[in-house]
């Protein structure tokens, strides 16, 4: 019960391990700064997540 009937070949096992990260992560547009960001992750540009600033993004110190 719940066990594989037949053992996979080495090739099947290796293909399973080789293919797990092929698809690209989902990108959505940040509602705050309209940059493309990862879904379900705070925006790396402005720190915006779920309608508020969730993360303080460290600003690069540049003379301006
Ligand atoms: Zn943003």
Give the topology, please:
Elements: H1 10-18, E1 27-29, E2 36-38, E3 48-49, E4 52-53
Antiparallel strand pairs: 1-2, 3-4
Bound molecules: zinc ion.
Zinc ion binds at residues 30, 32-33, 35, 43, 45-46, 48.
Descriptive labels:
16% strand, two-stranded antiparallel sheet, elongated, binds zinc ion, 64 residues, alpha+beta, single chain, 4 strands
Task: Encode the helix/strand succession as letters.
Answer: HEEEE
Number of helices: 1
Mean pLDDT: 88
> Which strand order does the major sheet show?
1-2
- Strand-pairing-aware structural class: alpha+beta
Could you say which overall geometry the principal axes of the C-alpha atoms support? elongated
Describe this structure in words.
This protein has a domain at 25-58. It starts with 9 loop residues before the first helix and ends in an 11-residue tail after the last strand. The radius of gyration is 21 Å and the shape is elongated. The chain has 64 residues and is of the alpha+beta class. The chain has 1 helix and 4 strands. Strand 3 (48-49) and strand 4 form a beta hairpin. It has a two-stranded antiparallel sheet. Zinc ion is lined by residues 30, 32-33, 35, 43, 45-46, 48.
Gist?
Helix content is 14%, strand content 16%. The chain is α+β, with helices and mostly antiparallel strands and 64 residues long.
């Amino acid at each position: 019960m719940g066990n594989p009937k037949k053992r996979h070949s080495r090739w099947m096992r290796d293909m399973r391990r080789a293919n797990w990260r092929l698809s690209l992560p989902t990108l959505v547009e940040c509602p705050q700064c309209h940059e493309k960001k990862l879904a379900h992750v705070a925006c790396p540009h402005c720190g915006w997540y779920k309608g508020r600033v969730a993360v303080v993004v460290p600003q690069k110190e540049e003379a301006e």
